[in-house]
Amino acid sequence: MNKIRKGDEVIVRTGKDKGRRGTVLQVFDDERILVEGVNLAKKHTKPNPNIGEQGGIVDKAMPLDITNVLIFNPKSKKGDRVGFRVNDDGSKERIFRGTGDVVDI
Fold first, then answer.
1. Which class would CATH give 9-75?
2. What angle do CA 80, 83, 86 make, to 5 degrees?
3. Domain boundaries, the chain
4. Which sign, positive or negative, has the C-alpha torsion 93, 99, 104, 105?
5. Which pLDDT value is given to residue 56?
């Protein structure tokens, strides 16, 4: 069970986009994540008339290391660490470390 999953709202805590918020688009196996609108790079593309693609400079989201983000806690309006709690029936759930509330997806 991963602490950060696709669809979570996260806050970047280091780097050029520090403090920015975005939604996780993809989680890679090598502990990197792709966040919407964060860590953008300029990609120069050639036009391809066969498929109707125009050339130019496109902003492309690049992956971040998973340790550089925190999950956004709507109750405290800050980033918070995530832990796990095992319920009485044996199921696991993600919780915010600061408040102890369950992380809703």
1. mainly beta
2. 145
3. 9-75
4. negative
5. 95
Neighbour tally for 40: CB within 10 Å: 13
The DSSP annotation for 66-103 comes to: GGGEEEEETTTTEEE-EEEEE-TTS-EEEEETTT-PBP
9, with CB counted inside 10 A (0-12, 13-18, 19+), is middle
pTM (2 d.p.) = 0.84
Degrees, nearest 5: CA angle 36-38-40: 105
Tens of pLDDT, residue by residue over 26-62, are: 999 999 999 999 999 999 999 999 999 899 999 999 9
